[in-house]
Every structure is written in structure tokens, then in C-alpha cells.
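Notes from hallway chat w/ T.B., transcribed later so I don't forget. T.B. wanted the structure written out for a chain they're using in a teaching module, and asked if we could keep both sequence and C-alpha cells in one place. Agreed to drop them here.
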Amino acid sequence: MIWILILMAMVWSGYLVFSYFFVNQAILLMMAPVYPKAEKLFRVIEYGNTHRDLMTIIWIVMIGLLILFQLLVFFRKKEIQINKKIILILILIFSIAALSYPIFSNDIFNYLFAGKTVVYYHQNPFLVMPKTFQDDLWLRFTHYVGNVYYYLGKTPITFVYGPMFLLYTLVPFLFFGAVEFQKLFWSYKLLGAVLFLATGYLFKKINPKDNLVWAYWFLNPFLILELLANSHNDLVMIFLFVLSVYWYQKNKIFGFISFALSVLIKWFSGFLGIVFLFKEKNRYWVYKILGLGILFFHAFYQRYSWYYSWVYMVFPFAKLKKSSWFLLIILQSVLVLNYTEFLWFNRWIYLPIIGVIKWIIPILILLNEFGKILQARVLKLVDKHRSERCVVRHGGSNPSLGTD
């Protein structure tokens, strides 16, 4: 196990270097007056842009190795015991991945700009959109600066996430103010590493015998890429929901508070509150149904890849078969490898085969988890139909009792 973790740390170290070949040049232009050495990175970016074939091959090799390591752990039969060495290497892996540049997403810049709106401009980001501050250099690399997401009455809301997430984004600003972008950027990302490790710890506390947690959480390249490297805020929502499940077993008040905080990060987790209405012995069925609902929802709407991380709020508690977890790993491996076309062509291309796979995998998981139940129901309906036909054929008498 240790050697797998060490190899993963080495690959993620390679990804850390690899990711900075794709830094937004506007960030370097902003930092150059204060940090003149930052200009050297322009040559790195130029190399990445002019050698996309080589960069794509390196990407495929790295992701292929990470998926291979995940599968080795997935099929490992010997139980994995947590010790100090494993924890230290996990901290190293998560920190390295978190410090990587978010190649495939610009969301973190929107998060940080919301915090800057509060700390530096003393304005409410729910009511004031980023483009209001036209002279701000951060606007050069921040996207969706003029969006209105919904209306509260007649008031346009310009920050799509919940108020608790806004408070979360302010944590780095408490230490570094609103001026030194690079410190805010890296400290925010390292906060994610802490939450990622804490979430895995909670999974083990809730179900100590769940050895698959190493494959589906701790060493999952899809989750590490999306939640740490790309820094999507879904991690904060997931952590608080898992914490609510953990607390609900011990103290329902704390459990409810944690669940409410999760909802106030991203509204989606509010739909999952239904699990607490069922008795604990029956909840795993609810978790299964909710997880499958998330998969089919994303397949229907063709949502962004990172939204598939939502299933980790429910599937770890659903008593899934190992074969179902394997199917999910296949789906997520496809989603990660799908980023290859962006690296190769420098633009997003919709591949219909990905849409097909997004449907096939949930259907297979559905059949795998509920196949026997569905089969029994179908056979019962068939038998009932046959009985009704027999009754009609014999003039309403029951053929099993004979006739006079």
C-alpha cells in the first residue's frame, strides 16, 4: 500500500508542474510588476501551447497511472490499516494536488472575487456583480463577471452560491487581506486539502469496515482532480453533508446544523434531507435511489463532469455492491479522460459517445442493485397476467379447482 501511495505522490507532483504550463497569462501580467521572475513562466506557457501533442501524451500517461493505482487498491483484498505513514503521504498527495493550477475550471477565481468584493470593496456580491469594478485586474481572468443567476422578488442575485460559502471564501482573506492574490489562491486551495482528508476520515468513522473508501475517495483521481486541483466548491457541501450524517448518529441537533450549513453552501444538498425521515435500517435504500437519481439527472441534462462528485454524499452509505462501485469508477475514468480533447484542441468538443456512456453506466448500476427485485416484480406481473387469461378462458372458474 505504501509504495502505491508514494507512486501516486510522484505522479501528482508531475501533474503539479504540468498544470502550470496552462496558467492564464493575465495572472502573470498582474504579478510581474511585483514579482519580475514571474515573467519566466511566459516561456513555459508558450511551450505548453505550441507542444499540445506532447502535453496530451503526458496527461494521458499520468491519468492512466492514477487510474491504474486506484484499481490496484480497489481489487486489493487485504484490509488497509491507517497509520502515521499513510496519513503523512495522504497529506502530501492532497497538498500537492491542491496546489496545482486549475487547468479545466475558472470557478476558483469567481470564489475569490466574491471574497474580495466583501473585504476590499465592502460590497455585497449577492447584489453587486464583479464587472462593476471595471479597473480591477482580477477581471482579466475571472469569468461570468456580469451574470444575474436568479431574482429574489425584483432584486437580481449576482452570486449563485449560498451565504455560508461566501463566509468560507473569506477565510484566506482573514490572514492575507485582499491584495496578495497568490497567497489567497494557494491558501484557499490548501483549505480544500484539509476538507478532503477530513471527509475521508468521516467515511471511515461512520463505517470502519468500509475498505473500498480508499479506492472511491482517498485515491480517486477523478475526485482529487475536480475537488482539489480544479477546486470546485462541491467539496465543502459534501464535507458538511457527510459530517451531518456522522453527527446525526450521535447528536441530532448537531447533525441538523451541519446539514443546514451544507444546504447554505449549495442548495442542491437540501434534496438529500429526505434520508433523515427514514429509519436508519432503511436509509441505505434511500441513498441508493438518490444516488441513481443524481446519475440519471446528470445524464439527462449532460451536466459538467464535476457535478458527478455529488454521488459521494449518498453512495458511501448505500451499501453498494463492489461491482457497482467498479462501474462508477469506469464512468469517472471516462469523464477524466474526456479532458484530453481540451488539451489536444484547446477547446471543448462534445463527444456523443460520452453522453451514451453517461446513460449506460447508471442503467447497469440500477440493474445490478435492483435487478433481482425488478425481476421478481416482472415475474409476478407475468404470472398475474397468465392467471387472468386462464380465468377468462375457463369462463371465470378457477381451473385449479376443476369444474362440476
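Follow-up for T.B.: Strands lie at 150-152, 155-157. Might be a good example for the class.
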